[in-house]
Design goal:
The protein is an alpha+beta fold and 133 residues long. The chain has helices spanning 9-21, 39-48, 76-81, 98-108, 111-132; strands at 2-3, 25-26, 53-58, 61-69, 84-88, 91-95. The chain is 47% helix and 22% strand.
Amino acid sequence: MDVIISFDSENIRKVQKAMASLGYVPRLQGVKAKDLANKVILEDWIKNRNMLVFTFFQPVSHYRQLDILLVHPLDFKAAYSRKITTKAEGIKINTVCADDLIEMKEYSGRKQDLSDIEHLKRAAKINGDKKKK
């Protein structure tokens, strides 16, 4: 799962605590989640290590992972103001709006993301048509 977050120290502390409580740890050895709040270290990771994501995973279930996007085109505060909130099993889940998701997929430029964009645009058109009725 890919997520974007606010990189302020209080939020990083909350993310770190939540991941630890679920048994998730950083994938790369020698990196600490708390360093996500350190702009100098974060810039070093991006520029010198070519890190685009910071990955947490569960050591007992390697396929369960969460990628925090370090590089993306969105302003977090603006994207958060446009978030879509849903509930699943009583848990509130915030997701980016369709337009922001499309922008993120365009930015990545990966073949699968470009294919996803077409599906997202079709779904938005269908949903828009339904709302007009």
